[in-house]
Each structure stands twice: as C-alpha cells, then as structure tokens.
Amino acid sequence: MRRRCLIYDKILELANGEDVKLAASFREDLNKEIAIGMTNYMIVNGSLSEGHEKLTKAQRYYQSKKEMLALSDSITYQKISSMEAQADLLDANDMIEEKESDKLRKKAAILKAELKLTSALISMEDLTRQLKAFNSVRIQLMGYVKNRYPNGIEQAEHDNWSAVLEYRIRNGESARNVPMSSIDKAIYGIKNNRPDLVTWAQVEHKDIVENKYHGDIERFLKEESQIALDKTTT
After folding, report:
1. Structural domain of residue 197, as residue ranges?
2. Which of 95, 122, 148 delimits the end of a domain?
3. What's the CA gap between 134 and 32, in Å, rounded?
4. Do 126 and 27 sit in the same domain of this protein?
5. Are residue 166 and residue 188 in the same domain, yes or no?
6. For residue 104, what are the CA distances in angstroms to 5, 59, 98, 150, 181?
7. What rounded mean pLDDT belongs to the chain?
8. First and final CA of the chain: distance in angstroms?
C-alpha cells in the first residue's frame, strides 16, 4: 500500500511540475504564437494555391466553400463534445462524497470534464478562425466566379483542369491523369511537344485518323476540335 501511495505522490509531483504549468500557460498564446491548425497565411498561400494545384480563381473559390463545409462539421462535433463535457461536469459536481475515494473520483471527474471543455474551446476558436479565413477568400472571389460561371462548378471544370494541365506541362510533370478529353489533351500535347498526351487520341480515334485523315493526327485534332466548337455554339 505504501509503495502505491509513493507512486501516486510521484505522479502528482510530476503533474504539478513547473514545466507543466508553463506549458499550460501557453494557451494564452493561441492564435498569436501557436496555431493548432493551418495559419491564415497557409490557407491563402498553401491549401488555396499552387501547392495543391488551385491555380484558377474558380478553383480557389470552390475549394474555399468545400473547406468551410468540412470545418462546419468539425465545429458541430466540437459542440457535441462540449455538451457531453458540460453534462459530465454537472454530474461530477453532484457526486456524493461518502469516502476519501469518492472525493478523489469526484475531483478527477471534474478535472476531466473541465479539460475536455477547455480542449473543445481551443478547437472551436481555431476552427472558427480558419472558417473566417476561407470565407474571406470566398467573398473576394465570389463576384468574378459567379459572373464567369453562372451555372456552377461543372461549367468551370474545363478551364480549371486546363490550367492544371498547362501547369504540369510547364513543370515537365506527368499529365496523363488530368481529367480532360483525349482530343483536348492531344491538342496541348501537339502544341507543347508532349507526345505522351497525344497517344490516347491516336488510340481512341484510330479508325477516323487513319481512314479519314490518312494518319495526320494534327489535321484530325484541328478539324475535330472545330467541329466540337461549332456544336457548342449553335
């Protein structure tokens, strides 16, 4: 029994150490010197920029909305967690202390609930900060995107992925998994001397290229792309 008490006393001594108290005081530095999630700078210049291939205004606008929706769900989960912690705190305060062990359990339950509430608050403050940062970008881009793509994200996707394709070509990266039609990819491939982007069109439209255009892939691309353009404008 004595050994167990010594172990417990040592645990309390470590938990109440000066370094632990110092670290706990760092909560005051949240959003000043400490960021739990992405900083506002990282949001604008990281997740909504070149690093994640968000190259167009439309991409940044739609990604902002997507991130905001995810953050909203996370905030709701933190709300649920805080409600549970508050209920635990109320129950803990109502615990009956008939024995020394009851007092200890009550103190532990209160401490646990209070820590859970504090953690929820820290997360909520950080998540709402990120939410505001994404919303600032959304508001900044909304007018342009709504005016250029009134029908929404599907209307913008060709321009978005064209930008990604060109970005990868300029960087000498593989662009095969960029979602575009074989003809669109091939046009970029011919223009930028990237035969790897022409292959799909050559295989997919083999009969037409060979029989109608006598193997002239460039003529095929020029005329077929114009035919497709005429269909969209009539």
Report:
1. 155-233
2. 148
3. 19
4. no
5. yes
6. 13, 55, 11, 63, 68
7. 90
8. 90
Q: Are residues 129 and 167 in the same domain?
A: no
pLDDT digits (tens, 9 = 90+) for 47-56: 999 989 999 9
CA distance 196 to 186: 8
Question: Is the Cβ–Cβ distance between 72 and 173 less than 8 Å?
Answer: no
Number of domains in the chain: 3
Q: Is the pLDDT confidence value at 224 over 70?
A: yes
Provide the whole-model pTM.
0.84
| Identity at 33, one-letter amino acid code | E
Angle between helix 153-170 and 182-191 (nearest 10): 30
Contact criterion met (CB below 8 Å) for 186 and 198 = yes
Tell me the C-alpha distance between 130 and 39, whole Å: 7
Tens of pLDDT, residues 118-149: 999 999 999 999 999 999 999 999 999 999 99
Burial of 234 (0-12, 13-18, 19+ CB in 10 A): exposed
- Whether 55 and 136 map to the same domain: the answer is yes
| pLDDT for position 234 | 39
Provide the sign of the torsion angle of the four alpha carbons 55, 61, 66, 72, taken in this order: positive
CA 91-97-99 angle, to 5 degrees, is: 140
CA geometry: angle at 52 spanning 29 and 177, to 5°?
Answer: 155
